[in-house]
Specification:
about 200 residues; mainly alpha
């Protein structure tokens, strides 16, 4: 019984250690909250559907490092533009056949999630798989080609709105990589036990 209590206390201490503040955590949290708020605001102004999904994408494009966030946002916008073009081609073939639509969702999701574990697309592949699955699922509601096209343009906006907000916020408020590195080094050195001569 005592061993079980000690194990529980050890696990509790480990979980509590994850919540300890570190340099830049509050600043990043505020920047991420502002990005989600602005993304939702833009989605509501332009009346795009699923503002919650658009705000969710902000979690994937925001990073602590300013340049990493900007690069991920630009790359994700380019990739989603190519994927929407590819989805429109797939949609023409499967729009009237539910079985092939489900198969195409499965194959595309499996392929992209495989890329998440086997390539350098790791930070982006999961959100791309989500958007591809969502885009192909939109075909079930589309009665005409025009509605399907509008759905794909909305799927494109789901990524480009948070990417544009992320780029703007990070260029205006994001910390430079050098400052983050200096803070991380100073934090590690302050936690290092001092050696007595």
């Amino acid at each position: 019984m005592a061993a079980h209590v000690d194990s529980f206390r050890q696990q509790f201490r480990e979980r509590l250690a994850l919540l300890r503040p570190f340099p830049g955590r509050l600043e990043f949290s505020c920047r991420l909250a502002l990005a989600c708020t602005l993304t939702t605001l833009v989605a509501e102004i332009y009346q795009t559907p699923d503002a919650a999904l658009t705000a969710y994408v902000a979690f994937f494009v925001m990073r602590r490092d300013r340049m990493e966030s900007v690069i991920i946002s630009i790359v994700l916008t380019i990739l989603i533009s190519l994927l929407v073009a590819m989805l429109m081609l797939i949609a023409m073939a499967v729009i009237d056949q539910p079985l092939w639509r489900v198969i195409s969702i499965t194959v595309a999701s499996f392929g992209l999630l495989f890329l998440a574990s086997a390539s350098k697309l790791k930070p982006l592949a999961a959100i791309i798989a989500l958007i591809v699955g969502y885009g192909l699922d939109l075909l079930s509601d589309a009665q005409a080609g025009e509605l399907a096209t509008r759905g794909y343009l909305y799927a494109w906006l789901f990524v480009t709105i948070p990417a544009a907000v992320s780029i703007t916020l990070n260029l205006l408020l994001g910390p430079p990589p050098r400052r983050l590195l200096e803070q991380a080094i100073a934090h590690r050195l302050s936690r290092r036990p001092s050696r007595k001569a």
